[in-house]
Amino acid sequence: MSFLAAENSSNDVTKEDTEEPQEMTLDMELERPKAADCTGTDKETLKSALQAAITAACCSRDRTSQGSHGGEVEYVTKSEMNEVLEVCEGVVREGILSEVGNSFFSLFVDRAVRFGEMDLLPLFLRFVDSFDVMRLELMGFVDVNLDTEAMCERLFDIVVKEWRLNLKYCRGQAYLGSGEVSYKLKAFACKVQEKYPLAICTHSSCYSFNTWWSRSVPVPSVSRALDTLEKIVVFFSSTADLEKQLDQIIAIGLRENYEKVHELQGMFCSSWLEKHDSYDVFAQILEPIADSLERFQCSSPQIWSLAVINQAKKLVQLIRDFDFIVAMVALKNVSSFTKELSAALQKDHFSAASQLCQISGIVATLNRVKTNIKVFHQNWFDEACAFAQSLGVPIKVPDSVTVPRDSLLKPGTYYKDAVSLPLVDHLINSVKDHFSDDHKEALNFLSLVPCSVTVSYTFESLKSKPPLYVSDLPDPDNFFTELSCWKVKWKTKVVSPTIPDTIFQTLRLPLMQYFANINTLLKIMCVLPSTALEYCGEVKHHKMFEDYLRNTCAKDRSPCLAVLQVGTNFNRDLDRMVAQCLKVTPKTLEGICLV
């Protein structure tokens, strides 16, 4: 069964909950009473066996696990086991949706990922649960190769029909893609926002803003450079010994910054997408990385496997390419203009709200850079040439570019037009698009968090006009009175060490029952994709998904197993998994119990 078929099958599970299959063989009908005997088995035994089977199936594709048997179960065929997993995937999805209910939510479509022979877009749902915990859940996937109209139709079908969510409660959209994929996702976003204006388009806090905008750059050289950086990270994170090797590289490249070395060692591979200065770090460790990779093949005695040596050799070739070096240096320098913004958005709610006034200044600065691109590009190009010289890389136009014999096209001129200018252009548009007036107004509500109330000028701005979300407020007529009372409440407690500094802490206060409007606004902030996901004891599921991708080869990945590994909560799902399997795949469940 193909992965796409597996996904479609799982999406139909909810239909099987409500109606019996119409087309069944006589043999299956005759066996149904016998299969029902499985329900007589001790329920705890069924639960234990199914949990063990799901766990084994998830671990079987992990290249870091030892002694895996491919997820095979002795008395169950592979196709039967896949059917059970699909049923369980549907149960996990339904369990998550039951927690969403009719509350506010937002949509997040992550970058395309290779599953077998297919490229799929991961679909995430963000909401706040009944315990006021911010949640970001992996819900499924959509084929990246659908045309624009088909993509829009498929996404609408998934959200509205399969998930049964009402888009009038959607308060945010975040879509990560470049080139044609970006165009398709923007088309969907526009259609949603046309009908539901409060479904604001933003970036996602799963990535630093610098990582976010750079991953959607429609510049081939930059896309290839980012792919190379990804391969470097995957390589060094594949084993503990290789990660230690990267720690040594970081110590060499950042030897003049002990605090930074201490911050990154042991953490860089898992956190670089969330860092606002990752390109700066890569530029500083580029030479040590190249030197280290070259030593892999000439170590004596040979301590690395042939597979590792071959991978290292390929990475050296990618790094010792002037096209990569130019793109890397350009990314480092252009991202410096949004470094402070990116860092503030990650830091805390007060910093994020306070940074909003800087956005118009950032755009003005970038426009000046664009006007004087010749000067800026020359500085960046000189820096790239210095890197190339130290790495022994020839300075030239890419081999893929056809240059007529009589042409005077020089590398500097080529890269100004092919990399530097479009990169600056893209960043200008990204800042404007991702920080629209509505988004900035929405982020102002972060100043409602008590620690910001009396120290943030943005709180005062909330009194100037009716709020963006006035239609969502339970008592809009008393909003301004409520604001004044809220300020008085916290004005005398600024010095208290117990003053809440997170949305979660604020929502859990007993007094929130008297501030219904502020309670609603803070819950909307919980689901806005750009606000930081507060750690409230829950494992960050996007991080789990990134770990899943890092620990599996593309050929071994399964959309079904990805959802199960990331989203399964056995305390919530296991009883329903058993019940649904007894309805849909009773004989297979019986076979699992025989192991």
Explain briefly what this protein structure is.
The chain has 595 residues and is of the alpha/beta class.
Task: Describe the 3D structure.
The chain has helices at 3-11, 13-18, 26-36, 43-60, 78-100, 148-162, 179-195, 209-214, 220-236, 240-253, 258-264, 268-271, 278-296, 306-319, 322-335, 339-347, 349-354, 359-371, 373-391, 411-434, 437-444, 450-453, 457-461, 479-491, 503-507, 516-527, 541-550, 559-567, 570-584, 586-593; strands at 105-109, 113-115, 118-128, 134-143, 170-175, 200-201. Helix content is 59%, strand content 6%. Mean pLDDT is 86; it is low at 1-37 and 66-71. It contains 30 helices and six strands. Strand 3 and strand 4 form a beta hairpin. It folds into three domains: 1-205 and 546-595, no CATH class; 212-431, no CATH class; 438-527, no CATH class. It has 595 residues and is of the alpha/beta class. It is globular, with a radius of gyration of 26 Å. Strands 1, 2, 3, 4, 5 and 6 form a six-stranded mixed β-sheet that branches.
